[in-house]
Amino acid sequence: MKRKKVLAMGLTLAMAASVCGMSAYADEFNPDKDPNGIDWTQMREQFGAMPEVPDGLVVGGLVKQLQNEFWQSLKKGYEECGAYIAEQAGVELTVDVQAALDESDEEGQLTTMNNMINKGYNGILFSPISDSNLTAAVDTCNEGDATVAVNVNDGVAQNTNYFVGPNAYQNGVLAAEWISEKLGGEGQAAVVIGKVAAYAARERTDGFVETMAEIAPNIEIVAQQSADWDRQVSKELAETWLTQYPDLDAVFCNNDDMALGVVEAVRAYEEETGKHIYVVGVDGDSEAYESIRNGGQDATVDSFPYYVGMVSMEYMVRQLSGQEMPKVVWTPQALICSDNIDSDPAEVIGWSDAAFE
């Protein structure tokens, strides 16, 4: 059996330790591995139809930024689920979604959350830019009894009482399974990591590397490096790898924007060599979908941010209506490739709206 190599290039000590199976985050809260976590279908099975909803609830949504399609879709899910619940329950429900200026504006995001708390919002669905920038605001919610704070999607605040979002580790698992099948269990792969400090980047990478080691030990992970979620950086990184690793067969990227950068590099390489290199991203961006349809990117692990928003809002309203919700609820996701690219997402995940008695 060929021994798997892992070359951790350009990583921080924390990421390098994680790659080697000695995660520096082992003692922290990890929603992907919560033994009591349930998925969104189990939530509905366990708690049934929506309870009686109080009139006049105000729920804030706090996202990382609104220039990115992912966060726009999450916002839409919050708002449309809120409108649906209000209509079905015959109540007034206000949903106010705000964002930081960009994904470097940690202080601005904290200020916005504090403003929501000070205004007396009943609940806040928050997605921190980092694992720690909203810690103080979450502490305020946890110590009081006025505002319920629910961590959504990623950027896990270690003091959070509730988390709703995709299982980021499973993102990597789905990608590894698909690439392994395409390569027949033999070959070379590389990983383009997002921001090393980001929870989702760590988990997606670990899910991919650990799953590949388990199911396809003859697929060698020749390189792992951060591109900071940046398309141009990932393109340049792929260009370097194509020179260093001429036998490279596949690249897994922690998000679609970076995957599209890799596509630019590898497709030019393919025209020269005739060798196909599989590229898989995460998020399900519309540009990634179009690239898959046009023979560019090969696949994306879609976390369906619209449905993340829908499930999160349902979870919040259940909580505010008196149901004692579990700490972790996972939202739907699926690997999308040319086989199912034109399928209705609702059919792919088996979606139905929340039931009312």
Keywords:
seven-stranded mixed sheet, 357 residues, seven-stranded parallel sheet, disordered N terminus, 18% strand, single chain
Order of secondary-structure elements: EHEHEHEHEHEEHEHEHEHEHEHEEH
Q: What's the N-to-C terminus distance? A: 58 Å
Tell me, what's the shape?
Answer: elongated
* Uncertain runs: 1-26
Our count of helices gives 12
Over the alpha carbons, how many angstroms does the gyration radius reach?
21 Å
Widest sheet, order of strands: 1-9-8-10-11-12-14
Query: Could you describe the largest sheet, including whether it forms a barrel?
Result: 7 strands, mixed
Give the beta-strand count. 14
Q: Which class of secondary structure composition applies to the elements?
A: alpha/beta
Mean pLDDT: 91
Give the oligomer, counting copies of the same chain as homo and different chains as hetero.
single chain
Helicity level, as a percent range?
Answer: 40-55%
What is the strand content? 15-25%
Helices, strands, pairings?
Layout: E1 6-8, H1 13-19, E2 38-39, H2 40-47, E3 57-63, H3 69-89, E4 93-99, H4 106-118, E5 123-126, H5 135-143, E6 148-152, E7 163-165, H6 168-183, E8 187-193, H7 199-215, E9 219-226, H8 231-244, E10 250-253, H9 256-273, E11 278-282, H10 286-293, E12 299-302, H11 305-320, E13 328-330, E14 334-336, H12 345-349
Parallel strand pairs: 1-9, 2-13, 3-4, 3-5, 5-6, 6-7, 7-13, 8-9, 8-10, 10-11, 11-12
Antiparallel strand pairs: 12-14
